[in-house]
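Chain A, query sequence.
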Amino acid sequence: MTPERFRMLKIFGIAGAAAVLAACANNDVSVPGRDAPLIKADRGGSVPTNVNRYLWLASLDTIDFMPVDKADPLAGIIATDWYGNPQVPQERFKTNVYILDTALRADALRVTVFRQQLTDYGWVDAPVNPATAREIENAILSRARELRLNSLDG
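Chain A, predicted structure.
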């Protein structure tokens, strides 16, 4: 299954689940305090206040070519599943992104990259160039700054 097809299946699955949940809603019952927010803070959309909104969105944008395995905005963790470039089928990568602070700073972001090579014995862990994680961090930081500037202009 191609990553593009997998992404489309994921989108349709999420849309289907949302439709099922919406169909289960009962708007006839009025419960006092039901519509009150659980957290009284400006969450900035779907990103909680304990991580930087721009770093979170920029991280998702930057690694969008990799299948996301887990994304926890409360903990500030994005973990991808293995991704293999079709042009290099004997190598695959996995990435974890950690957003550590609410500030838009370089030390609020940490990226770890894992690499495996296909051998006669299956997939085997292989060393990763240390510059790879730094390059991804720099790309995320650049995108986050761009998102922030765009939000100030708009």
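DSSP finds three helices and five strands in the chain. The chain has a mean pLDDT of 81.
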